[in-house]
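PROTEIN DESIGN WORKSHEET
SECTION A - STRUCTURE
LENGTH: 83
TOKENS:
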């Protein structure tokens, strides 16, 4: 099982800040997890609308090729602008 965190406007679009998920068969990278989550449809399609989505695995910045294993924490957050 992994813990997934959603931040900022992504959290608002999905309607929750975190969830626990049993890794589905074949999901072993951030990119595969991203595709699985976006493929849920409904509010989860919000993932696909965010360009330049940032990801951290176990509190370290990662790219879509990074491995995801049972027990990991994966955080998704959109780019943030401010002034």
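SECTION B - SEQUENCE
RESIDUE ASSIGNMENT:
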């Amino acid at each position: 099982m992994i813990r997934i965190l959603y931040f900022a406007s992504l959290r608002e679009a999905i309607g929750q800040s975190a969830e626990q998920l049993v890794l589905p068969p074949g999901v072993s990278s951030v990119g595969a997890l991203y595709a699985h989550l976006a493929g849920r449809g409904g509010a989860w399609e919000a993932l696909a609308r965010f360009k330049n989505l940032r990801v951290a695995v176990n509190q370290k910045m990662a790219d879509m090729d990074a491995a995801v294993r049972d027990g990991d924490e994966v955080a998704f957050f959109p780019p943030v602008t401010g002034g």
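SECTION C - NOTES
The chain has a mean pLDDT of 90.
The CA atoms of residues 23 and 78 lie 23 Å apart.
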